[in-house]
């Protein structure tokens, strides 16, 4: 963990995690043993987004204002800089191979690394802006490969570089709202990249990792190598789709459908099993076989999307690499992981932060964002380097 080193952020930072059904803001400091001390916290539900657009921008502005107001109340944090996690649905990844050569051997510093990134890719699109850049692997003049070239001596520096681009629709929507709330500086950061760096240890990332963050309305799928996302795609699917199917099929209110979803156990198969839901004075009974059939059909849709992403990525993901699931969409459905594993013929695991009181898959994006924000140097550099060692 870098956070105790000289020059690293020790004061309070403010983060905003934008999910597809809720927005969470937190004012946070470093705690002991890689934990966090949360000084202010707010979570607000909202209409969300899908296919690259927010459903209700007026509501979004109000929710952001409420979150910041609640977080900053009772803290000394002035929120000069707010770190905003960008969902995978609003980002795309560009991979580049690039090298620079020097007239003689020299010790590589941040300056040389930044020069490699600066000259490795020029963004020509008016639609996007670069929010993160990181290295898959670097090669030196003696063909040695390294995850972090800073401090090495070489006559050339070659890298497989990953640039995360953010749709300006997202930044052009969020920035003015935050400025109105008195935020001086907004830093945008790739949510999938932050999660990858936080949830997977370096040795796992070096071998390749595959992550699907399944939310309420959207899912973000990423392939990770080194300190970089090498493929990333967002698609409209989440736990809310199951809720909607229950609502429509059984003609029930969404809140009852949500309670039903949280009762699901996909190992129940007999005809006479039922799910009982109590709502106030009302009691509802649903046939487990039909409920589970609906969930299986929905999970198959998720699997088809993941299969498409694996093919579309054009990366031969090794057989030993598991599909890692996180996010709040389906993590609590008993038997979902096993069904996905069988359907895709892959080992499937669930990832969560290893933190007291923040140890569920639904906590992953916020915990990763907090870690990333607290890992920034006090004197802000243009892009972050190796965040989690």
| Distance from first to last alpha carbon | 6 Å
DSSP strand content: 25-35%
Widest sheet, order of strands: 3-2-1-6-11
Radius of gyration: 22 Å
- The class by helix and strand makeup works out as alpha+beta
Helix content: 25-40%
Molecular shape? globular
Q: What integer is the average pLDDT?
A: 87
Sequence stretches where pLDDT stays below 50 over 5 or more residues: 1-9, 379-389
| Main beta-sheet annotation | 5 strands, mixed
**Alpha plus pi helix count:** 10
Number of strands: 18
H and E order: EEEEEHEEHEEEHEHHEEEHHEEHEHEH
Keyword list:
single chain, 389 residues, 5-stranded mixed β-sheet, 33% strand, disordered N terminus
Topology, element by element:
Layout: E1 13-18, E2 22-30, E3 36-45, E4 49-50, E5 53-54, H1 57-72, E6 81-86, E7 91-107, H2 110-120, E8 128-139, E9 145-146, E10 153-167, H3 168-180, E11 185-190, H4 191-199, H5 202-207, E12 209-214, E13 219-225, E14 228-235, H6 239-250, H7 254-261, E15 274-279, E16 282-287, H8 288-313, E17 323-326, H9 336-344, E18 348-350, H10 364-374
Parallel strand pairs: 1-6, 6-11, 12-17, 17-18
Antiparallel strand pairs: 1-2, 2-3, 4-5, 7-10, 8-9, 8-10, 12-13, 13-14, 15-16
């Amino acid at each position: 963990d870098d956070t105790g080193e000289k020059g690293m952020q020790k004061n309070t930072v403010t983060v905003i995690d934008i999910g597809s059904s809720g927005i969470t803001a937190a004012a946070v400091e470093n705690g002991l043993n890689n934990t966090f001390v949360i000084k202010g916290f707010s979570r607000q539900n909202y209409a969300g987004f899908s296919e690259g657009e927010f459903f209700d921008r007026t509501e979004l502005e109000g929710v952001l204002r409420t979150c910041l107001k609640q977080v900053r109340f009772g803290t000394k944090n002035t929120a000069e800089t707010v770190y905003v996690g960008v969902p995978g649905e609003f980002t795309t990844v560009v991979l580049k191979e690039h090298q620079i050569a020097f007239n003689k051997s020299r010790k590589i510093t941040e300056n040389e690394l930044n020069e490699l990134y600066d000259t490795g890719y020029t963004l020509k699109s008016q639609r996007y802006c670069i929010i993160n850049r990181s290295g898959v692997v670097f090669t030196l003049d003696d063909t040695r490969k390294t995850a972090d070239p800073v401090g090495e001596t070489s006559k050339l520096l070659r890298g497989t570089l990953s640039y995360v681009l953010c749709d300006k629709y997202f930044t052009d929507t969020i920035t003015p709202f935050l400025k109105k709330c008195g935020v001086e500086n907004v830093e945008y950061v790739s949510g999938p990249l932050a999660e990858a760096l936080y949830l997977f240890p370096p040795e796992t990332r070096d071998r390749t990792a595959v992550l699907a963050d399944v939310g309420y309305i959207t899912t973000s799928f990423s392939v990770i190598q080194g300190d970089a996302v090498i493929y990333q795609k967002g698609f409209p699917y989440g736990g809310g789709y199951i809720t909607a199917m229950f609502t429509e099929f059984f003609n029930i209110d969404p809140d009852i459908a949500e309670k039903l979803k949280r009762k699901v156990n996909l190992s129940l198969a007999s005809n006479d099993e039922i799910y009982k839901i109590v709502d106030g004075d009302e009691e509802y009974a649903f046939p487990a076989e039909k409920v589970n059939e609906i969930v299986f059909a929905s999970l198959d849709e998720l699997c088809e999307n993941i299969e498409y992403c694996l093919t579309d990525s054009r990366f031969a993901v090794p057989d030993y690499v598991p599909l890692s699931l996180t996010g709040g969409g389906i993590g609590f459905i008993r038997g979902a992981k096993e069904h996905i594993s069988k359907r895709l013929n892959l080992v499937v695991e669930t990832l969560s932060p290893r933190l007291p009181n923040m140890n569920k898959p639904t906590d992953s994006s916020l915990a990763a964002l907090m870690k990333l924000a607290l890992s920034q140097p006090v004197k802000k550099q243009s892009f972050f380097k190796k965040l989690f060692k």
